[in-house]
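Continuing from yesterday's entry. The apo prediction looked reasonable, so today I'm repeating it with flavin-adenine dinucleotide included to see how the binding region is handled. Same sequence as before; SMILES copied from the compound registry.
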Amino acid sequence: MRKTIAIIGSGFSSLSASCYLAKAGHKVAIYEKNATVGGRARQLIKDGFTFDIGPSWYWMPDIFEKFFNDFGKSTSDYYQLDKLSPAYKIFFSDEVITIGDHMDQICEEFERIEAGSSKPLRKFIAQAQDHYDIAINKVVLKPGISPFELVTKDTVTRVDRFFKTISSEVRKNFKNPKLISTLEFPVLFLGAKPSDTPSFYSFMNFADFGLGTWHPKGGMYEIIKAMKSLAESLGVEVNTNSNVEKINVENGKAIGLRVNGNTIDSDIVLSGADYHHSETLLDQNYRQYSEAYWDKRTFAPSSLLFYVGFNKKLKAIEHHNLFFDTSFENHAEEIYDDPKWPENPLFYVNFPSVTDKSMAPEGCETGFFLIPIAPGLEDTPELREQYFDIIINRFENITNQNVKDHILFKESFCVNDFVSEYNSYKGNAYGMANTLKQTAFLRPKLKSKKVDGLYFTGQLTVPGPGVPPSLISGKLVADLINKN
Ligand SMILES: Cc1cc2nc3c(=O)[nH]c(=O)nc-3n(C[C@H](O)[C@H](O)[C@H](O)COP(=O)(O)OP(=O)(O)OC[C@H]3O[C@@H](n4cnc5c(N)ncnc54)[C@H](O)[C@@H]3O)c2cc1C
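Holo prediction written out below.
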């Protein structure tokens, strides 16, 4: 039966759900509080420089392709995808590791650092591929309703991999601390410490070394533009500057929204805004999870971000650059165990203009700097400046060049902005972490247990943080709505 569906938010998960729901014949409208669509993946354009505000790593190209294929389209109908070669660079205090765009190059680099390490690497990545096939083709496509979803012949025979951690698995096979950090880096996208992340999640290592790092020409926002255009072609109505103030419920059934003071009627409400915030749009008796519940969850980090325009081309850098020249363990402790501003932060810098001329004016460089920090930290202009000085000095020393005198402008984004722009819980950047206790059926549910016709999607529910999981989350919730 054709239903009217009101969707809160226009991030990847909402846009994905809107496409599947419209394709199934429903009348779908999106209500987004901000002036532009895309949520955490919005874009900043300033003085000819183009920045992706949030995500910059295009991993798991198969998932993007599958999404567009579901609508008889291909990614190439909307954007040009290039495989980055090299994929990225990691700067340690005394060495640089370059990750190439295929396994043979990566093995050579591992051998250079630790003789004999390419053999265990190939074995580790073969197992990671096995995990990827099971995770992506079977596990993540489950709606997280029951524990039995995880019980398949593939998972039962690999059950130990849910109880061992990625950290112990990596350390069993590799001794060199730099190689250990290199192999622990991909699971940071899942939001938790490698020592708290099940070894089954090594599928992220296959995504990294096996499938490679890609770049949509024009930046990640091209994907958002593509999805918006697809959604509109399927009949979805997209409303921006539309702040949802309340989810209206009558006799235990969602009946619509209050948007900018106006009542919008609908048969179904779906929220792709952060789950915690979405529940605050309900009267207390209709909320499923208490404040204490949220407070006890492990959230993915927040971030201090800088968007910097440089008036020259920089040297010794690649498109993606990780600065692991300080202790990974200490910084992780300051995010998860003893939340505070990090003493010696690791950081990440993205220069899309290195491979994509369209991202910066000629002869210039577009720089995106990211320091992961604990969610909920105090955020002041002074702290932001202090940390910019720390990382820009380190960047200059390690890459051996003056860049400070070549900054045309810089903008910053941190905890307070995550809260004000996205209603993010404690200013988290990418949702709730994927730890063993926060996996699959143990995550907040797609369907409300207290309000009929109310559903949730996005990085706080299944399958978890990241752009590819958000696309899948939208499909899972649409399937659930269509079944009910
Ligand atoms: C700095 C950063 C770097 C990242 N890097 C990567 C990466 O490299 N690769 C990767 O795959 N992933 C990355 N991620 C994660 C990825 O961006 C997210 O997982 C994904 O974008 C989340 O999509 P979503 O739909 O769940 O939520 P969101 O994008 O947050 O969408 C929620 C939407 O709801 C809207 N909203 C909230 N409240 C209301 C309201 N009351 N009324 C109306 N609208 C409302 C918000 O404005 C927002 O548009 C990164 C995230 C950040 C922040």
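Comparison notes:
- The domain at 4-41+219-296+432-483 is CATH 3.50.50.60 (FAD/NAD(P)-binding domain).
- Residues 118-137 form the longest helix (20 residues).
Will overlay with the apo model tomorrow.
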